[in-house]
Amino acid sequence: MSSTSSSASDAAASETRLDAFNAYRDQMNERILEGTDHLGIKRFFRLDDAAYDDGALPGDTKELLGLVASTVLRCNDCIDYHLQQCVNAGWSDEELLDALNVALVVGGSIVIPHLRHAVETIDLLRSREQADS
Predict the structure, then answer these.
(1) How is the chain split into domains, by residue range?
(2) Does the pLDDT at position 3 exceed 60?
(3) Is 92 left (phi over 0), alpha (psi -120 to 50) or beta?
(4) CA 20, CA 63: separation in Å to the nearest integer?
(5) pLDDT of 48-86, one tens digit each?
(6) How far apart are CA 80 and CA 123, in angstroms?
């Protein structure tokens, strides 16, 4: 396999990964929130949403903080979610990498695999932006 077709297939696999994550997240959130009457779970989901609303800190800054926390906690699904929010909010690659550097310093070398995952996701999101423009 040539490096070009390998890169194309890597990009397709990454895109499929992110699409699958978004579909699964939406499906399960709907199942959890609409398929149950558990008040505590519903309240926590609402609290999580409200935490990223504008307040003393703007919502886009809170999303960047969420990215750092998710990276330190080593949650790739959370990293993908917050990166999508951060890219939609207009954060540049340089700003995202600077925030990820903070996560690396706080979390240590165990964060490196999740940093790789984050960079792959940033690349995917940027390639989607280019395809859409």
Answers:
(1) 8-132
(2) no
(3) beta
(4) 22
(5) 999 999 999 999 999 999 999 999 999 999 999 999 999
(6) 12
- Burial class of 15 by CB neighbour count within 10 A (0 to 12, 13 to 18, 19+): middle
The two three-digit tokens of residue 117, written as one number = 């995952």
* pTM, rounded to two decimals: 0.87
- Is the distance from CB of 133 to CB of 104 less than 8 angstroms? no
Query: How would DSSP label each residue in 81-121?
Result: HHHHHHHHHT--HHHHHHHHHHHHHHH-GGGHHHHHHHHHH
| The CATH fold of domain 8-132 | AhpD-like (1.20.1290)
**What's the full length of the chain, in residues?**
133
Rounded to an integer, what distance in angstroms lies between the CA atom of residue 15 and that of residue 17? 5
Answer with the residue of higher pLDDT: 1 or 9: 9
